[in-house]
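Format notes (please read before filing issues)

Several people have asked whether sequences and structure tokens are stored in separate files. They are not. Every record keeps both together, in the order shown below: the sequence lines, then the token lines. Line labels are part of the format and must not be stripped during preprocessing.
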Amino acid sequence: MADQYNILEDAVRDMFARAVWSHKIQEKQADIYQKQYKWMETVSIMCASLTSVGILSTLFTDQFWIKIVSAVLSFASVFVAAYFRSFDLNKLTKAHKEAANKLLIVRNEITCLLTSIKLKEKPVVELEDRYRELMDKANEVYKDAPTTTDKAVKLAKEALLVTGDNTFSEEEIDSYIPAALQKGGKK
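Then the structure lines:
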């Protein structure tokens, strides 16, 4: 019987790890699109402003280089506007954040299932049914999740393995909860 709990626990832990990774990748992809949007928006504002200054300056001077720079900046403004029409970065950001939030919910539910398995509070058959439900739920999220880039995977890997996102020391956990619930000895 203990072997059945261990086998189920291993399967659920694998599902948990996949949810953690997928959640972080979706978060990082949303961050990438958000940064792109802010950068492109800044470039658009600068190009439009400088184009206006260039056009106004041609009223007072007839410098050929000002006309060339204004034309290039105008082209850059048109390019950014066309890019925004083709790729709705805010919509992409929102889609990745929604997928990340759904994966966070699944991840939390998997944590509850792992707790139940460790406590052996229910028969293996019931826990296995819950595992299958969560697997179906996770698969639905994965199916509907927007595609991510290699850059998002790399950033997620760095966040999880190098900087330790989603991990807390006992001292950090103790600092977040009331003294009576702390493990560090504060009473």
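For reference, the curators noted about this record: The chain has one domain: 2-162. The CA atoms of residues 33 and 92 lie 7 Å apart.
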